[in-house]
Amino acid sequence: MRIGIITGEFPPMHGGVGAYSRILARHLAAQGHGIYILTDERARYEDNSIHLTNTIRRWDGRAWLKARAWAREHRLELISLQYQTAAYAMSPWVHFLPDILRPLPVVTTFHDLRYPYLFPKAGMLRTWIVRRLARFSAGVITTNHEDMAALAFHDCRALIPIASNITTALTETFNAAEWRARAGAVEGDFVIAHFGLINRSKGLDVLLRALALLRKDGVSARLLIVGGTAGGNDPTNLDYAKEIDGLIDSMELRPVIHQTGYLDESDVSAYLHAADVVALPYRDGASYRRGSLMAALRYACPIVTTTQSVAIPSFVDGENLLCVPPDDPDALAAGLRRLYIDPDLRRKLSQGAAALAPTFDWEQIAREHVAFFDRVRETCA
Hints:
The chain is of the alpha/beta class. The protein folds into two domains: 2-163 and 361-380, Glycogen Phosphorylase B (Rossmann fold), CATH 3.40.50; 176-360, Glycogen Phosphorylase B (Rossmann fold, 3-Layer(aba) Sandwich), CATH 3.40.50. It has helices at residues 16-30, 61-73, 97-101, 124-136, 145-150, 176-182, 204-216, 236-250, 265-274, 291-298, 329-341, 343-356, 362-380; strands at 2-7, 34-40, 50-56, 78-84, 106-112, 139-142, 157-159, 190-196, 221-227, 257-259, 277-280, 303-306, 322-324. The strands form two sheets. A seven-stranded parallel β-sheet has the order 3-2-1-4-5-6-7, with helices on both faces.
């Protein structure tokens, strides 16, 4: 199949959707499909199995006319649109892509249906325009249970989870003590890792308050913020990052925090392995939509996260992750303290994460995409 992938971000641009698009494209190509990428002019990628068109400067009406010419030039059979409301510079034009490319079927992957920053003060227009994109797409893919329920009105939909964007295996020379030392830890320290771009929904401020409570109670806890940059899609992330810096200083936590900034994959995997626990206190609960959670599962980390907003049968509290209520520093501190004093529970959660990780395998995810694309072309387009 000749598949076109349109994405607002692509490596070396930082962002989860860009990394997802790259890895998915690579696995689809490995399974024998022709893969063509249309993306931002800042994108760069050397891979002879993937054709990259990085000519989009602005995601305006002219960009979508270019998309139509690009699809015709490469004789594409289906378009996979990677959609997130903060991507495409929050342009409204993306929501009309299925109309522009008709009769070519467009399958839209909704990475996140939350849209608080799309068209500020636009009210119901935000809901209408996103739902319109879904209705006019030949098929829709959601990456999580919450969005699958929200798009129940669409007859041709599938839930296909994401996998970790961090896929590098540890080297044979990995030494946990060395990486802990890089984070400023000494023997006996309890190293808590937090991973991912800084965003208010990820609850880093809650984690900082929980860290302060642990320190007050005499726990020699340190926080390792892996990655910890604000990203470029959502302008409010920069404001939140400034809040985090102010909170660190006001609580006098700077000496016990190591913030890495952007890292390559091998360093991310090493830091996650070196930590005692990974804390991911999402304000909206643990979800399949969270690439940072997928990474922690991928590396079999003991995980403390927040109770899911909808039932997710594969997430079992006390078996493959430890759940606490969201937005509750005291509860988070209690969960972390529990793991601090109970290494057996840490081992149990690590083993549970390792058992769950194969659910989020890129080869399987690529096969599920192809099966759904075939279904769309045969019955939904």
